[in-house]
């Protein structure tokens, strides 16, 4: 397993939680840098290659429309769309050789937008379209799918019980999703050998 993130301390803690560097190797890269995808791909090859790729990119910036700036769009597109698409392209040879799969975490807000997140939803929409195009480009050797998430619980961001209740009512099930539930769907898509270019919606 290879993990990548921009925060070295959080990356090290995640690796340790999963069993240490022998189990979960790390690559510390900020996706806003122009060579981020190439640096990740190079390190992956040095670690011995890869079978599958899970794209779970953050952050989740609040960008009210009245204050939207070019910089907001450029930064968010770089992290959520440009870097992930370039990473899949950079690792395409390894993915073809392993007949691997790519699973990306998207957002249900692409088709059901909500306020104050114009840049984020624009970027997730670009990723969704780009991955569907790559699913055609890399077929039949590599499967590429996306999970369109509803609201998933975040203990740090969702400490306000009133806000938590208000957001939870957006879901037909009346609650947030959990990390375990998201992982279950990701694993199911990895096993879905006759699915590519699909968007599985959960928690909407």
Provide the descriptors you would attach to this structure in a database record:
two-stranded parallel sheet, 204 residues, Rossmann fold, 7 helices, 6 strands, single chain, alpha/beta
Question: How is this structure best described in words?
Answer:
- The protein is an alpha/beta fold and 204 residues long.
- The protein has a single domain (51-202), classed as 3-Layer(aba) Sandwich (Rossmann fold), CATH 3.40.50.
- Helices cover 45% and strands 14% of the residues.
- The protein has a four-stranded parallel sheet, sandwiched between helices. It has a two-stranded parallel ribbon with strand order 1-2.
- β1 (2-5), α1 and β2 (25-28) form a beta-alpha-beta unit.
- The longest helix is centred in the middle third of the chain and has 21 residues, at 70-90.
Helix residue percentage: 40-55%
CATH topology: Rossmann fold
Question: What general form does the structure show?
Answer: globular
Tell me the fraction of residues in β-strands, as a range: 5-15%
pLDDT averaged over residues: 92
Characterize the largest beta sheet: strand count, sense, and whether it forms a barrel.
Answer: 4 strands, parallel
CATH homologous superfamily identity: NAD(P)-binding Rossmann-like Domain
């Amino acid at each position: 397993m290879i993990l990548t993130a921009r925060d070295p301390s959080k990356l090290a803690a995640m690796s340790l939680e999963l069993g240490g560097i022998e189990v979960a190797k790390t690559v510390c890269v900020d996706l806003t840098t122009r060579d981020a995808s190439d640096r990740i791909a190079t390190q992956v090859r040095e670690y011995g290659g890869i079978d599958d790729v899970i794209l779970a990119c953050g952050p989740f910036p609040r960008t009210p429309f009245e204050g939207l700036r070019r910089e907001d769009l450029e930064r968010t597109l770089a992290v959520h769309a440009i870097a992930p698409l370039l990473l899949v392209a950079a690792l395409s040879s390894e993915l073809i050789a392993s007949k691997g799969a790519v699973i990306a975490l998207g957002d249900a807000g692409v088709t059901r937008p909500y306020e104050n997140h114009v840049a984020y939803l624009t970027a997730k929409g670009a990723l969704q379209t780009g991955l569907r195009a790559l699913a055609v480009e890399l077929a039949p050797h590599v499967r590429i799918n996306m999970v369109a998430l509803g609201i998933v619980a975040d203990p740090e961001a969702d400490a306000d019980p009133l806000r938590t209740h208000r957001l939870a009512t957006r879901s037909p099930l009346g609650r947030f999703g959990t990390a375990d539930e998201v992982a279950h769907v990701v694993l199911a898509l990895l096993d879905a050998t006759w699915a590519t270019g699909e968007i599985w919606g959960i928690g909407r």
